[in-house]
Amino acid sequence: MIDRDHLLAIVREAGRIAHSRWPGAGHDLHSWDKTPGNPVSEADLEVDRFLKRELHRLLPSAAWLSEETADDKVRTQSGLIWLVDPIDGTRDFVGGRPGWAVSVALVSSGRPLIGMLAAPARGEEWVAVAGQGATLNDVPIRASQRTTFAGARVPTHSLPKDDSDLVAVEQPNSIALRIAMVADDRADLVATLRWGFEWDIAAATLIAREAGAEVTDAFGGPLAYNKHDPRDFGVLVCSPAIHAAAVERLAERAKALR
User: Fold this and answer.
1) Does the pLDDT of residue 10 top 90, yes or no?
2) 28: which residues sit within 8 A by CB, 6+ positions away?
């Protein structure tokens, strides 16, 4: 196992670099759209370069997959891989809002071993090691234990009519932070019904699972990482007792959208 404290220091420094470019702290930032509605900034690329260099030094044998680096499929031949989103929640980042985080996961044979999120604009550091639980700012956390589906807290700006029995709570742009909200019992349910990339969720899903949440794809199936196509259709993270009801609620929508 690698040095956890050394890894955390690297992730924390990546968060500091991002924060030093963040418009919410009064800094000028150059950003553009990679595709319409999909922003990227000079900070994303700077953090990506820093993490690629430092994580390779920490564990030279691990492959690399990041949102801001071209995908080299040779990675699938490696048993170890870093899955990195240098700034998850770029829309909030470039807009000067705090709902963003640096996300780093080490994956072994398709399963996350270590997951870390640095969200300096929120004063939050999330850490999980497989089999060792999860912490927020070095304090152990326990995921939502809600037992009834109606009234479940969902990070969203608005709820569709079919979900009017649920409760909307704060929604950071970062999907990783939304998942972490379930891990810290600030939300009961996070669900997406679209194709998403492994780097968005690898760290956060380990944090949620180690805190006691149920973690699956949108259909209730297992998630795996370092696939040739590094995507899954949807992610579902919730209190274990409401997972079956969540899968049932989403089933027809998931089938239609997929």
Assistant:
1) yes
2) none
